[in-house]
Amino acid sequence: MSTDKRKAPNDDAYISSSNQLVKRQKSVPRDAGSAIAISSSTSSSGALIKAVPRTSALQAPIMELTGHSGEVFVVRFDPTGEHIASGSFDRTVLLWNTYGDCINYGEISGHKGAILDLQWSRDGRSIYTATTDSLVAGWDVETGQRIRRHIGHEDIVNAIDVSRKGLEIILSGSDDGTIGIWDPRAKEAVDYLETAFPITSVAIGDSGVEIFSGGIENEIKVWDLRKKTVVNNLRGHTDTVTSLSVSPDGQSLLSNSMDSTVRVWDIRPFATSNRLLKVFEGALFGLEKNLVRASWSPKGDKIAAGGGDRTVSVWDSDSKKLLYKLPGHKGTVNDVRFMPGSEPIIVSASSDRNLLLGELGK
């Protein structure tokens, strides 16, 4: 498998089978520097037209990460933001450094089906994967060895989430219509919640009591884990719900759907009955019908979503203003994530088999 890393073309829109892994290098201070845009349309030698302030310590304003041999369905930063994991149709998870040359320092392999979703453990030492081979699995990041196979689902596992507080638990949603609740230390599920439709998205509230699921019935179910029952239904989407994500402050839920809308819902315990807060439009879904995902920025002030139009849409979460429409991919953008921390860095994964890592403007 080729793992060439190269700088992507400077685009002004972005600016404003081995299980052995190489051990991570220690982080060193980096100088953000500045980017210079050069035009060669009127001169063979090029003309200096402006200096664009850099906003991050990335080696270049945009980095293209290549190495997967199939569609890339999911991408996640680790808790520190220093490393990236991407999962693909090629049945592998590739591990990348965020800074420097964005080296592909490791590969996790062993699944017999495509990697549809993944999450890092809270300590960054493990990765949990959801795949088309009906498994949820845990992997040791340093060695690439599988820690545990969580067996129990009877069909494709589309989505997983990991609790952010309290005891670390894994939540999974499958085409078999069940939501699996897993202790990473145990092979068998702690419990299952059953529905009548395939589950395409899941999320865990910060209380650890409420969980959220979305599926092909176009609505979001709110579950009480103590009662194992649905306590609310969030309705408004008109097509399959493809992703769910709880806001950094734990008070809102972000949903993306094949109806080409991204929505924010109020999930506070005593909110009004009409919990729909905002609708974001502009991220066209396209014809592939992949489980395209949306995400929050670390402060919750921005929202991003991939699209079938090969772009990444970024909105201001308060005003709903479309801030960026980021080009560069040659296929559907299936996932997009903001880097944890203060640097305005975003990474996207696409059906064109590549990742784009870039900085946003101030």
Automatic annotation (TrEMBL):
CDD domains: WD40. Residues 1-26 are annotated as: Disordered. WD repeats lie at residues 65-97, 108-149, 150-192, 199-233, 234-268, 284-325, 326-362. InterPro entries: U5_snRNP_Component, WD40/YVTN_repeat-like_dom_sf, WD40_PAC1, WD40_repeat_CS, WD40_repeat_dom_sf, WD40_rpt. One of its GO terms (molecular function) is RNA binding. Keywords: mRNA processing, mRNA splicing, Repeat, WD repeat. GO terms for cellular component: catalytic step 2 spliceosome. Residues 1-10 have a biased composition (Basic and acidic residues). One of its GO terms (biological process) is mRNA processing. This is U5 snRNP complex subunit. It comes from Orbilia javanica.
